[in-house]
């Protein structure tokens, strides 16, 4: 099924009668419901001999006939070749039916005829069957009795009425599927070609049934007034095309006994009638008289062997198909078993690999624990730092401490002295500051007194703590002496090199002494950055 939402008719043989086929209709996924019955002629009836007849009736009442078709074939004439007659054991071969090129469908209420014409395919083209439907099939309603009488006795639809052209086309040269297209319009016998528009699809199943699907989205583009007639023509036409041209069966025309008798005269290739064949035939010798064949009756004619050959060929084909299906089933089972075996082997391989990895991990863990235990027994645990001290491997433990500052207190001296009561500042040494050019030459020169560097004025000399010699200055009343002393923050060589503090101290010192001027007092003095902060 192409799509369960499309209108679809399923052809299924009836279980009550082999001559009936029930058409089940489904739409939008609904349950199948019997809508029509396709009836074929009974071959046992004398009226059905050498004919093909089929009708489409209502499923609930078979007396309501919507459309029917009757096909009478033409017959081939007996051969005149004596070689063929001798090959057939002296009996002329029977006449065989010839399928006509046109088939007529008779529709009722309103009465109309639809002719299906066969168009054989050529190189690169498949076979096709074409038919036409009028755009307007019903007359306008009228209350006049004259119009009713004219409608009852109206002739078939004339050619001047516009018609829509449809075509059943075989999908492939070997397939059993067809598609119906709307290919154009026909007015007064002149056809206009249009792009093909899909209307219906026919598909034959293996079990003898078939399916006709109406492509509903394209029906709005079909300008046909009788939509019911279009459905009937599509259903009946598809079945007739399949039985007559697409997949004909051996007993199509019910040829049970003998072909109908031919006329006394037959026509030659030029269409002229000729006398019946006499008893003289050219068979090898010129003018040799050959006795006429003995008269044959219907009972003496042997049944054609073609049917038996076809049955045997079909039997062999079915047997080969069944054997192929069994072989494919066995192959699928073998492949399934092979896949299961491969999956089991892969699972075992993965499990073994995981077990091996687990064993390796446990072995390495055991080695690590054994080595740890050996090292613990050898070195013990005394050297391990469990407290808050820095680890020997930490980067902070590898950094060496700062060396002590020369002549000054440690890093925390200032903060420690601030927490205690401030003692009285000690007396400043005599040689605390630079005096003259003798102060250059290293940090030791700051604390050593110069030979001639006694202060002018001859004041009292005080001995400084730390081993300062004589010749120092008197204690200064400078308020910064507490910071500039040896116990102060700036009492170190780094702070004592600043000329700012030296000049400030010289200005507030008691007494006067000659001061050397370098001549660069006008320049801006730059304070050296302390190393404390």
TrEMBL record:
Residues 453-472 have a biased composition (Gly residues). Residues 249-308, 323-533 are annotated as: Disordered. Residues 324-376, 503-524 have a biased composition (Basic and acidic residues). This is Uncharacterized protein. Residues 473-483 have a biased composition (Low complexity). It comes from Plectosphaerella plurivora.
